[in-house]
Amino acid sequence: MKERERLRMGMLGPPSIANELQTHVPPCASGLSTKFVDFIKRLNHSFPNILQDPSNQKCGGRKKTVSFSSMPSEKKISSAQDCISFMQAGCELRKVRPNSRIYNRFFTLDTDLQALRWEPSKKDLEKAKLDISAIKEIRLGKNTETFRNNGLADQICEDSAFSILHGENYESLDLVAHSADVANIWVSGLRYLVSRSKQPLDFMEDNQNTPRLMWLKTVFEAADVDGNGIMLEDTSVELIKQLNPTLKESKIRLKFKEIQKSKEKLTTRVTEEEFCEAFCELCTRPEVYFLLVQISKNKEYLDANDLMLFLEAEQGVTHITEDMCLDIIRRYELSEEGRQKGFLAIDGFTQYLLSPECDIFDPEQKKVSQDMTQPLSHYYINASHNTYLIEDQFRGPADINGYVRALKMGCRSLELDVSDGSDNEPILCNRNNMALHIPFRSVIEVISKFAFVASEYPLILCLGNHCSLPQQKVMAQQMKKVFGDKLYTEAPLPSESYLPSPEKLKRMIIVKGKKLPSDSDLSEGEVTDEDEEVEASGRASADHNGEQRHAWLCRELSDLVSICKSVQYRDFELSMKSQNYWEICSFSETEASRIANEYPEDFVNYNKKFLSRIYPSAMRIDSSNLNPQDFWNCGCQIVAMNFQTPGPMMDLHTGWFLQNGGCGYVLRPSIMRDEVSYFSANTKGIVPGVSPLALHIKIISGQNFPKPKGACAKGDVIDPYVCIEIHGIPADCSEQRTKTVQQNSDNPIFDETFEFQVNLPELAMIRFVVLDDDYIGDEFIGQYTIPFECLQPGYRHVPLRSFVGDIMEHVTLFVHIAITNRSGGGKAQKRSLSVRMGKKVREYTMLRNIGLKTIDDVFKIAVQPLREAIDMRENMQVGKILNSLEWMGIATETIPSLTTLNDENHDSSLLHAFCQFPWVSPLQSASFNMIQESRFLIEMADTVQEKIVQCQKAGMEFHEELHNLGAKEGLKGRKLNKATESFAWNITVLKGQGDLLKNAKNEAIENMKQTQLACLSCGLSKSPSSGAEAKGKRSLEAIEEKESSEENGRL
User: What values do phi and psi take at 6, rounded to 5?
Assistant: First the structure.
């Protein structure tokens, strides 16, 4: 079934960014610490209903988004002048009134750029206008009382609405454009005019000398050897391709013809003006241009301060300095003037956004960043199945390149199926096609050479032994000789309980296979044979009447097996009692799926101590792949994949092991490692002790999409759309898709936002898939899969991969990523304050009844502290303030610098700041409440957490005796298992809620400190002039001193 047939239109999520943060933070605030600015960003994502983003709401049942292919004018918007020209030509806008009336009016901008006019109007012509100088603010979206009170507001698309606030009383002129792109043009143009209102008459003249045009003229003059101001079209085309290698030659030539045709001339020579015009139209991405204007305070370039705020607030870059920003400008700005003066124009900014520095993958995860000292069973391990094959498993030949490919991809578990060869030389071959084989010695030599090229952590060789005793001895001799000291043969210590760690086993090769009893001196003996092929063919039951199959094993080969001894799985109860930690079970896909469905909790608990290997069903004769996520959810460490078969399942596998430096080992979530914890692979709700997160993804645009390779249609035209898949535990799995952009492969604009709740982020992955909606034969364009933990926030380019997994040059998705906590990630649809409060229900994680009074009485003590902990964390959220702002119809950008204040509220400083703005005095009460909640959490968190920890410790005292106590109370079988499961659930809840409360306290302390810094930086905190202010200042100092003394005490 095609991927497009599996996907359905999804609900649209909240907007992606706080667009106006940079516009309204004064220069003096640029020195704020990173944590404070990061908090601002999270807050703005958490409360999308007051942001100026065009993605907030659905328009009817289907979201109408920006599509620059439907512009009224064929000319692409590439500068402020283009916006002004469009506004001067005028267009029809709908004027919204509070009385539920909407009027169609034709709006234009005066030629002198002094006023905005509309007609028809009952007013005098001189009154049906708005002076640019009277404009205070321009808001994008339905963010005024007029929109909120209009009965038809629900029928108005959020993307197309904008408001102009003017006059001393901040009256609003509320307008709706016929499309989101037109609204963007008016908003950008008006903001530019307002910022330049002191010298509007010089606008057109200044625009001819922008840094970009000056740079282009310099480039043209350098290429114009004759100095005549003209050059051959071929030379111009080549020059533009040098500046932008992604452009197609045919598209550049077509643009020159369009420009010359508009001037009624036809020649093969290009003037300087035509060259500049063609470059600007071809190389300006509208979505990047509008972003630059927004974050640069309506300039057409970024200075160091603009860039610093952008990196901190949107990109989440920490410890950024002005010198670092200037270095970025010097590396990416194309003009010499820009590099010298320290500004980044549109072309340099575009290059920066496309650079590895703005990649979606967290650079910290490109190196080993996880704890590698845990037992081997606590990691997911990159594993290959039938490694020697490069085609299907039915007839494919054995090829040594299969091992080279897998090892270079960071694979840490290889499979070797060894059979008898001629001349007493063991061979590797596909047993369905033994004609084409490779010598065993050649394989292990290649393994030895490439074993630790991609990763220095241990390599496991899964030995499929089909050899006679003489050739087994040859195998053992060859492995000893080739691998030497790298071969791990140390006997496991019975005194230990867990396997050694990857750190301890660095650069070691571990053999997995059968082993003779250690207490026997026999040089050879019989062992059980759990061959994959036996299970597949059914010979074990059909030919042997259910009897276990045996094979002969020599001592020399047996001695090479140490901590990965293969044993047969019976059941979990028997395994937990008698299986040794160095023994490993292999499960077929079919058997593992059955166990995962019937005993999901037991499977997770089993894998805390023992290694499990899952291999694909033998029915997959085409070597297709299983879904590894199904078994990762159960904690299975070694899920073997057919590396030779690309597709969605291999995409998940490859994407998952990109993290932790691609070393082939990924640490499992703590809830799947802790000895006493509860986790079910089939959970369809909130995971106990884990705080869910809201993932906001805005798909902005695509770049240079190729035609699907298998498409049968002629021409290069495609109709792309983007699917977003979330993979993880069942509660997290989700799919949503964008609209289709018709006939645009170069730069399709999607501009759609989606929200996903992720309950267990450590196990979640995001897969971006681009497909062709008008396909014949093949729809696949590209994909990229990334672990949730590796996402970088902000504006990012996603490098798309081909069907076989190769990175496609210059083929990207432009997205915006934001991650908030669940209470902060609201839906885009706005409601009144009372409705929102009525809809919000606080959820408490409940403890379970075990059925043993002694233990239940201990856990009952924790019920009240748990409730208090959740209340304190929830009450600290700043939603009360922002909801109050929404209720009053005031967006944060209305008040200069309020964006930097309303998120983190120190009492005296913030209330003093609010007093300077009389129209927000009603907010003082809400602000004070917020501050009080934060202070209450800081003061009470340790006490409540101590109660929770004490209950957890008291409960753990019963852990060893749980079964005995249950037996005394008459619990057995399923009831006893249920009691054990409930006990683990309660311990998990207590541990998780205690950790969350501790983190909340640290965040509250940091917020209070940063608020004081914000007030000082913005000049809004004056010397205390009242007792209340002095008391507030002393309170903050006391908190800082208390925290400092606690830290010193711990040290």
Answer: -90, -15
How much is the pLDDT for 877? Answer: 61
* Degrees to nearest 5, angle at CA 800 with 797 and 804: 160
- Choose from 176-190, 443-457, 1025-1039 the range with maximum mean pLDDT: 443-457
- C-beta of residue 487 within 8 angstroms of C-beta of residue 538: no
Helices 974-1017 and 1027-1050, axial angle in degrees (round to 10): 130
Burial of 205 (0-12, 13-18, 19+ CB in 10 A): exposed
End-to-end CA separation in angstroms for the chain: 60
The residue whose two tokens read 């609209």 is 739
Q: Which range has highest mean pLDDT (79-93, 824-838, 913-927, 969-983)?
A: 79-93
pTM here is: 0.76
Query: How many of the other CB atoms lie within 10 Å of CB of 340?
Result: 11
**Residue 674: which of 984, 983, 946 has the closest Cα?**
984
H/E element, 888: helix 879-888
CA separation for the pair 27, 906 (Å, rounded):
22
Token reading at 413: 């578990």
* Predicted pLDDT of residue 595: 94
Q: Which residues, 6+ apart, have CB-to-CB distance to 126 below 8 Å?
A: none
Dump pLDDT digits (tens) for 939-994.
888 888 888 888 888 888 887 778 788 877 778 777 777 888 788 888 888 888 88
637 φ/ψ angles, rounded to the nearest 5 degrees: -85, -45
Instruction: Identify the helix (H) or strand (E) that includes residue 133.
Output: none
- Residue 223 exposed, middle or buried by CB count within 10 Å (0-12, 13-18, 19+): middle
135-140 and 161-166 strand pairing? antiparallel
Q: Shortest CA distance to 445 belongs to which of 506, 382, 509?
A: 509
Q: Does position 873 have pLDDT exceeding 70, yes or no?
A: yes
H-assigned helices in 431-526: 440-450, 469-483
Q: Are 973 and 573 in contact (CB under 8 A)?
A: no
- Round to whole Å and give the CA distance between 379 and 374: 8
Please enumerate in sequence order all residues whose Cβ is within 8 A of that of 121, keeping only pairs 6 or more positions apart, or say none: 105, 127, 128
What pLDDT digit, counting tens, does each position of 181-204 carry?
888 889 888 888 887 664 443 444
**pLDDT score of 281 more than 60:** yes
CB 687 within 8 A of CB 734: no
- 252-288 burial, b at 16+ Cβ within 10 Å, e below that, comes to beebbeebbeeeeeeeebbbbebbbbbbbbbbbbbbb
Q: Is the peptide bond before 120 cis (omega within 30 degrees of 0)?
A: yes
Tokens of 27: 């220069």
Cα 43 to Cα 17: distance, rounded to the nearest angstrom: 10
Each residue of 385-444: pLDDT tens digit?
Answer: 989 887 766 667 788 999 999 999 999 999 999 999 888 999 998 766 665 789 999 999
How do strand 459-466 and strand 433-439 relate by DSSP bridges? unpaired
Whether 676 contacts 989, CB under 8 Å: no
| DSSP codes joined into one string, 572-601 | HHHHHHH--TTEEEEEEHHHHHHHHHH-HH
* Model pLDDT, residue 82: 83
Q: Determine the Cα–Cα distance for residues 724 and 883; give it in Å rounded to an integer.
A: 30
- pLDDT exceeds 70 at position 830: no
Is residue 409 within 8 Å of residue 533, measured between CB atoms? no
Nearest of 212, 988, 1026 to residue 674 by alpha carbon: 988
Phi-psi region of 1010 (alpha: psi -120 to 50; beta: other; left: phi over 0): alpha
Shortest CA distance to 926 belongs to which of 897, 940, 905? 905
Among 262-266, 688-692, 710-714, 742-746, where is mean pLDDT lowest? 710-714
